[in-house]
Specification:
Structural class: alpha/beta
Helix content: 40-55%
CATH superfamily of the largest domain: Periplasmic binding protein-like II
Radius of gyration: 22 Å
Distance between the termini: 78 Å
CATH topology of the largest domain: D-Maltodextrin-Binding Protein, domain 2
Order of helices and strands: HEHEHEHHEHEHHEHEHEEHHEHEH
Number of helices: 14
CATH architecture of the largest domain: 3-Layer(aba) Sandwich
Strand content: 15-25%
Largest sheet: 11 strands, mixed
CATH class of the largest domain: Alpha Beta
């Protein structure tokens, strides 16, 4: 009797698992989730994770506003955009998506992700440069613009409405979230003065992943954690990352979902899996970003927790700027600046 029932039970178990298998559509930055963690999740649950990549926030936001994001189960969103989309009724409330027995996130990340997102990562914006190529002392945001003018075809600045304009504002000594039209005009003039000297006007990591060892980039605006990925992609081990004297913007990224995309059980399983402290630590270390899961730090290696790029200590809190809600006019000016620069 046992010899007959056991194979049947095993067969029914396989059939049940196959019937329950689902595909999770994830709209995210490239190289933002550990391949090994994803593979382990797929092996343990029989679900599959399909990652669709975007390279800049402007294109991602177009997808969100158009309603096409309803095709995705989860979307990576920055805290600022998440709050705007949430208030417009475009996002689902995810504050109850994970049960209370899961680890808590950092207070700042929870505030940034509000009720519409699950905290994932946070970090800073700084300057990345190759110390074998760049001999000047790099300490200011203005150094990016000066180096670009002196070394055409070697510098990359991202094409982001918020961050690109913020970088120029900080270089000029202004608040990166300034609404002052005269200050924004000066920021535009500064950006326009170097646009023709840039290698490309795009995300530096995206360029590095495309070009690999053929990369001609000496300097770029980096998001913390990208140095490791760019070094691997380009096979260049001489990259450094610094936060300029004028300060930096602190960003938070969250996992969110479109209001027209019902939260399915497979998605909940995925959220629970990557937020298990051990898995969260593995995921963060493999990609080398700062996890918002503070319990994961208990399982992280010392070389990760002591990395000053991920966990900077040298700046005072007054130099850590946070994203603020801007009025329609300030947002429109920023969007127009990037549109004009992109078409030059």
């Amino acid at each position: 009797m046992k010899s007959i029932c056991l194979p049947i039970i095993l067969m029914l178990s396989v059939i049940f698992r196959t019937a329950q298998a689902d595909e999770i559509q994830l709209f995210t930055w490239e190289e933002y989730f550990s391949d090994e963690v994803i593979k382990r999740f797929e092996a343990e649950t029989n679900h599959t994770v399909n990652q669709i990549y975007f390279e800049n926030e402007s294109l991602r936001d177009q997808v969100m506003y158009s309603g096409k994001a309803a095709a995705y189960d989860l979307v990576i969103l920055d805290g600022y955009t998440l709050s705007v989309l949430g208030e417009k009724g475009i996002l689902s409330q995810l504050d109850n998506a994970l049960s209370d027995d899961l680890p808590f996130f950092t207070e700042q990340s929870e505030q940034a992700c509000h009720d519409y997102g699950i905290p994932y990562a946070y970090g800073t914006i700084g300057i990345g440069f190759r110390n074998s190529k760049v001999k000047e002392t790099i300490s200011s945001w203005m150094d990016v613009f000066d180096y670009a003018k002196k070394n055409p075809g070697r510098v990359i600045i991202p094409d982001e409405d918020m961050d690109t304009v913020a970088i120029a504002l900080m270089a000029l000594g202004y608040n990166p979230m300034s609404k002052d039209i005269l200050e924004l005009k000066q920021a535009f003039t500064l950006l326009q003065s170097v646009i023709g000297d840039l290698l490309v006007f795009r995300n530096g990591l995206g360029y590095a992943l495309d070009k690999g060892k053929e990369s001609k980039m000496d300097m770029a605006v980096f998001y913390s954690g990208e140095k490791e990925q760019i070094s691997i992609a380009t096979a260049q081990d001489d990259w450094e990352y610094i936060i300029p004297d004028e300060g930096t913007l602190v960003w938070h990224e969250c996992l969110s979902s479109h209001t027209k995309k019902p939260m399915k059980s497979a998605t909940i399983e995925f959220l629970r899996y990557i937020n298990n402290p051990v898995n969260a630590a593995k995921n963060a270390q493999d990609i080398w970003f700062t996890t918002a899961n503070k319990d994961a730090l208990k399982w992280a290696h010392k070389d990760y927790t002591s990395d000053k790029e991920l966990f900077p200590t040298e700046l005072t809190s007054s130099k850590y700027y946070h994203y603020q809600r801007l009025d329609y006019n300030a947002l429109k000016v920023r969007a127009n600046i990037i549109n004009v620069l992109s078409n030059q």
